[in-house]
Amino acid sequence: MYGDESLSGPNQIALLLATSITASIGIYNGKSWGSILKGISSSISSTSSAIIILLLIGALTGTWLISGIVPAMIYYGLKILNPEIFLFASCIICAIVSLASGSSWSTIATVGIALLGIGNVLGISEGLIAGSIISGAYFGDKLSPLSDTTNLAAAMSGTNLFTHIKYMMYTTIPSYIITLITFFLLGNSLEITSNQNINELLLSLDFTFNINLWLFLVPLTVIILIIKKTPAIPALLTGTLLGGAFAIIFQPQLISEISQVSILNIKTYYLVIMNAMASEINIVTDNDLMNNLLSSSGMKGMLPTVWLVICAMSFGGAMQESGLLKRISDPIMLYAKKTGSLIATTSLTCFFFNITTSDQYLSIVVPGKMFEKTFKDKGLAPENLSRTLEDSGTVTSVLIPWNTCGAAQSAVLGVATIAYLPFCFFNLISPIMTLLYGYLNIKIKKIN
């Protein structure tokens, strides 16, 4: 009914209505309203960190825009990147950054936004660009020893972290190679914007901003902080504040234009930077396409996503506390008889929990607990389970519009989940690859 606009309210209301029906069924079956409400509260509180990160990403986007950081990334990216291999290169760049930082969210919120801007200038479909960014970011996140989901999957299955990563490479590397080949072939078949248009955009950026390499110190600082295992919230806050400081140092003429005052003072700087963090900021140039790129909604733009996360976790909490998740998952165990069917059942359960609980972590934790004993009873090493959890739980979360990951990346990139879903080749191929390995009995390690 609403199409791309479903995230602006209808999805949230649908989730709340589903929550009320779930609670009613739970009460009918003997659960108290107090216990269900407690489950909902616990579910929402588990996403408090994600909500703060989302708000900080909105603020960071605003200060990185007025400081010229994102425009500088676009400017140099247009000069360096060959248009025909843009999708291929974007997937590799995001994979490297995510592998080093261990965070797909931080990768997409920093280099991902810049790559989306470059792709837009080249005239490439936003869904395709977002698909290449997300595919690369989730490949790096999945294999990075710094990633929280990688550590969580290893812990839930009871295997060593590096054993888990090593064993996961058997399915992850082939999936990624297929993804890169696909993006390379797609890139060479696209009609790219002419060099004349690109040159006009470069001139427009050069005229509007003071573009220089010093601006890259800010994203470099954020990446180094994350590599040094600094938590995401202080790392993103540092990047946001540095963005504001660099705006004062390098873009005073832009701040003067935005504030519409000729003489700058502390109050003017303060108001412009705070507005960039909190609300909408639009930078006007003489190029219409560039005007569409040079805009940010700050924290305000993240509020619909925060609203969606709260409603989704309300539904997930009610489902778990009412006993409906257990009622649905118990019969699934009956189908897990042979190795192939066990891996398939685990994979589908992870995807099911991504849909119903709307949370990436629960799609790893709950199936991990459910199937740990079954894998051992069938003589399968725990790394088989940890690999399946990652191949199916971690990568599919971003494909669900109301999942915290899907909602977050859609909001950060400004691209509807349904628009990028068909082009997230790595995320779509990974669960298929793990099913293939399971049924063909490829690299299925037994317990000694």
Secondary-structure blueprint of this entry?
Blueprint: H1 10-28, H2 33-45, H3 48-66, H4 69-80, H5 86-101, H6 104-121, H7 126-143, H8 148-157, H9 161-189, H10 195-208, H11 217-227, H12 232-250, H13 252-259, H14 266-278, E1 281-282, H15 288-293, E2 295-296, H16 303-321, H17 324-332, H18 339-356, H19 360-377, H20 382-394, H21 404-413, H22 417-420, H23 425-439
Antiparallel strand pairs: 1-2
Keywords:
single chain; 448 residues; mainly alpha; 2 domains; two-stranded antiparallel sheet; 2 strands; 1% strand
Order of helices and strands: HHHHHHHHHHHHHHEHEHHHHHHHH
Say how many strands there are.
Answer: 2
Number of helices, counting only DSSP H or I runs of 4 residues or more? 23
Biggest sheet record: 2 strands, antiparallel
- List the strand order in the largest sheet: 1-2
Q: Which strand-content bin applies to the residues?
A: under 5%
Categorize the overall geometry.
Answer: globular
What value does the average pLDDT take?
87
Given the helix and strand composition, which structural class is it? Answer: mainly alpha
Percent helix: over 70%
**Low-confidence runs of at least 5 consecutive residues:** none
Total domains: 2
Integer-rounded radius of gyration = 23 Å
From the N-terminal CA to the C-terminal CA, the straight-line distance is 55 Å
